[in-house]
């Protein structure tokens, strides 16, 4: 076999995770993979820098059983050694950085000036709105998937931003939601997204059952929410953390008369048209599914816990994202919501998906 080196650097501090049952999803075929790998390249070597973190461990778990991946591991005493990391990075075809922002910027600078081969995939916030980096949400559009496939620099999306952009990007693009709409979005996430300090709180003896945060209204995901949703400014964002380790629901309310394009909001069946716009956008996607319209359909399909509750952890340990639309045409209001695993499609699953695309492989490989 020909060895092809790929480095993945992880250091996002999140811990181990809650397993949960998930409802069935509809798996749809993907378009043919982009050909980055030549036929004689059979194996990619992968180095995880910071693999002791939860995201790194999850990525390692997804890659460790693959026969097209050869995992590279530095000795523990060398994991923070810049020289050792630089050597690994420059041996690699792809590097995924899941470090704090400053550390990710430093790691990107370790790529040698004459190295035009190594692909960087950064899971931090540092490069998400940098025009020189491809934003790593391939389902945004066919052009976005092609941009990721062709790029040497890929920025993995934030978990909250993934949910928000999955909802608003298609609706703005379809001429349903006004670019100048002044939106509010709320979200609840499992505590694993808060790193070791928050994990210690929630896995300790005493803690709150739920907590709102982000009271400065300057959450770090807001710039990418605006940049890739098509809106001309970010929403007001109200995040919260709950007493569960893993999973997420992001919700966006819409008022027909103030948030939708006037032509789109005319007449009957506005909610059905919003649902149809999302369903059309994701019709050929494997990992993003638009569920049936409205609460009654969800009850019939068993999507609600005890027939009433949309639980956030139903997609845990998968790279899937589900979209829910529920509307009241008489009140001229609607809510669109995204459910995903904050550590799956919101982190490590997305990183592996982008890695697969960058290597010209089937993007579903080693992803549930």
Q: What's the β-strand tally?
A: 14
- SSE order in H/E notation? EEHEHEHEEHEHEHEHEEHHEHEEH
Q: In percent, how helical is the residue content?
A: 25-40%
Q: Taking strands numbered 1, 2, ... along the chain, how are they ordered across the largest sheet?
A: 3-2-1-4-5-7-6
Strand content: 15-25%
Structural class: alpha/beta
Shape: globular
CA-to-CA gap between the ends? Answer: 27 Å
Radius of gyration: 20 Å
Number of helices: 11
Mean pLDDT: 88
List the SSEs and their pairings.
Blueprint: E1 2-10, E2 41-49, H1 54-63, E3 69-72, H2 82-91, E4 94-98, H3 101-108, E5 119-122, E6 134-135, H4 142-150, E7 153-155, H5 159-173, E8 184-190, H6 195-202, E9 210-212, H7 222-229, E10 236-242, E11 248-255, H8 256-259, H9 270-281, E12 288-290, H10 295-300, E13 321-328, E14 333-340, H11 344-358
Parallel strand pairs: 1-2, 1-4, 2-3, 4-5, 5-7, 6-7, 8-10, 12-13
Antiparallel strand pairs: 8-11, 9-10, 11-14, 13-14
Helix pairs in contact: 1-11, 5-7
Overview of this structure, please?
- The chain contains eleven helices and 14 strands.
- It is an alpha/beta fold.
- Strand 12 (288-290), helix 10 and strand 13 form a beta-alpha-beta unit.
- Helix 1 (54-63) packs across helix 11.
- The longest helix has 15 residues, at 159-173.
- The two termini are 27 Å apart.
- Mean pLDDT is 88; it is low at 1-41.
